Amino acid sequence: MSLSRRQILQAGLAAPLLIELPLTARAQSLDLARIAIGFPAGGTMDAVSRHIAEKLQPEYARSVIVESRVGAGGQLVVQYMKTAAADGSNVLLTPMSILGVYPHTYKKLAYDPQVDLTPVSCGVSYNYGFAVGPAVPASVTTIPQFIEWCKANPAKASFGSAATGSTLHFTGILLGRAGGIELTHVGYRGSSQMLTDVAGGNLTACSSPVGDLLAYQAAGRIRVIGTSGAKRSRFLPNVPTFTEYGYKDMAFTEWYGFYLSARAPQTQVQRLHKALAAALAHPAVVESLALMGMEPSPSSPAELDAMLKSDTARWGKLVGGIGFTADS
Asked: Is 42 left (phi over 0), alpha (psi -120 to 50) or beta?
């Protein structure tokens, strides 16, 4: 039996639909999805991930778990995304620094954020705080006063951060230089011991996410004397920003972004984007983030891509001026 030209054309037009239907069905019926992070369980990123993962169920996947892939300062989890299944079941949540700052501090990286990842949505944002403890006289309550005290006590002109080569580290260095002094950096692996040392008078000052400082500030164990945002933090409304002190170009905000593999289909990108927007707007998530000094900051994929490109360019100039390299 011969086929008419119309029948052949109709069969040809239907073929792509037959191919697409299983993909669409598969995209809408994930049994398990993983949010992969590059930091240990029990930390801030782990907490953020778990709060959001709970709200992605069951719309995005029947079950969403958090998987820690720790190593190389957060690099290993990004490398993992290069070879992980690209069906939407592997979701990366990472700080901007690992994608936008590391290319300037490491001569070689095993990943290229612009090539290996597809942006989905910004997740959360937060500001930094600069705090002093009892090693600094109680009369020092502002950044300019701290700078003057450091000039009079150069042996104590130092600060700590939870990670050498991080934006927290660089913010402290830039703050000192803006005030005309060199602050010696003391690197820690995590904020817990650093804050204990500041509160105990064993460390002069520290640069840390605002959320990590709130409990210590409330207890009167440290004094937050400046924050990094373009405007005052709603969590520390009585603390001036660096720019309010007159240190121009010292407004910094860190963010966590959600990404899929560059090989992921756009259907999955859009599905995850929609699910994240709903999760980040959920009152329980908003409340839990506030307890950590964070704000939900959903974005479009294009907006996240633009954010990363802008921050990568900005920190490239700043890191170049500092002259820091993570390579030995």
From this structure: left
